[in-house]
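Q: Hi! First time doing this. I have a protein sequence and I read that you can turn it into a structure. Is that right? Here it is:
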Amino acid sequence: MDRTPRIVHCDGSPPRPEQPISPAPDLALALVTLRRGTRFLGSGLRSGPADATATAITGHGRTKVIGNGLREVDRFLSLLIDAVASGVATPEDRAALARLDNTARKLAMLRTTMALASPDDAALRAIGRSRNCLFHTGGIVRAGLPGSVPTLGWAAPESAARNGEPAPLPPGSHLAVTPEDLRAICRFYDRIADELVAALAGPLPPPRQSID
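A: Yes, that's right. Below is the predicted 3D structure, encoded as structure tokens:
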């Protein structure tokens, strides 16, 4: 009997794919791509080792460059989620995951399928808000929905480990990004990736192609 966990809609019915499921990315290649992305962003978009004394990315459009870099790393994690799902999820579950463009929701859904805890939702959502703030408003914090409090994604991994909540930011403040901020957020993505791969049975296969 197939006891694979299933993803269902609120009414209890399974999702119905509206189009054929795209081929999942190769698992090893997706992992290598994410690790190269986090290493590149964590070093301040430098190909060499990170310099602890250097400014985290300089020049015109600095906040948009950082926001775009974070968006790319988030996309790499999304692709890794698709690759992991290809080995543990049913076609219906894969179709449901493929329709999601929010990585936090996608990760939570995959972890439910794998019967894993999902403690990173608040942190990923805070990082997403910070990423959008950097890209769209030049790093100036805007007020969110009534009653909501903007939060700082950079502090999410550390603060989440302490009390489960990212650090709050008042509207009008500016997101200051340091080299350590970038390294911390990249370690956060690397840790999620490593946990997903470790939860799979069997050794990781070699990548099918080079990404050089």
